[in-house]
Amino acid sequence: MIKRKNFIALFLSVAAASAMAQQAAPATGATGAAAEQAWKYKTKRLERSEVDALLAKPEKLVVIDVRRPDELTAKGSFPVYLNIQNKELEKSLAYIPKDRVILTVSNHAVRAGAAGDLLAAKGFTVAGATGSEDYESQGGTITKIAVPPPRTAAAAPAVTTAAAAVKKDW
User: What single string gives the DSSP state of each residue in the chain?
Assistant: First the structure.
């Protein structure tokens, strides 16, 4: 009987210590882990007020969103942007204007930071990187993109080709 009481007391003390340790540890979810990740890029990570200041001068700015198209439709983005995914960025440098300041965008700025570093290394002026989800959580407005409905056969334009016309004559 004494051994059983000792075992129960030991079990309860271990359980209590474990519960206290869990309460003291910070909660980290998907966004918590991203927020805690140390910034490792030379490109500055911008807050909402800094992004708003850039957006106030659209004639001097180009926004490059490096996310996949499905992320853009699911999460939204800024009113006007170039969508060039990170893996295509270096091949697309000729299409990016050099006379404007660049703001790079991803969900939580990590891919945007990498894109900013690449662009700066290639001679572009990069104002910084931001995450559209971070910007929105700080009170900024993100434009949601409506996915167009799939085209039906009736809605598709009729295209007559020379080959189709020849077939009719046979």
Answer: -HHHHHHHHHHHHHHHHHHHHHHHSPP--HHHHHHHSPP--SSPBPPHHHHHHHHT-GGGEEEEE-S-HHHHHHH-B-SS-EE--HHHHGGGGGGS-SSSEEEEEESSSHHHHHHHHHHHHTT--EEEEEEHHHHHHTT---B--PPPPPPPTTTSPP---HHHHHHHH-
Length of the chain: 170
d(CA 28, CA 115): 26
Structure tokens at 33: 């882990």
CA angle 44, 138, 147 (to 5 degrees): 95
CA distances 105 to 78, 128, 130, 139, Å, are: 9, 9, 5, 16
pTM over 0.90: no
Q: What is the pLDDT of residue 132?
A: 95
pLDDT tens, residue by residue, 83-120: 999 999 999 999 999 999 999 999 999 999 999 999 99
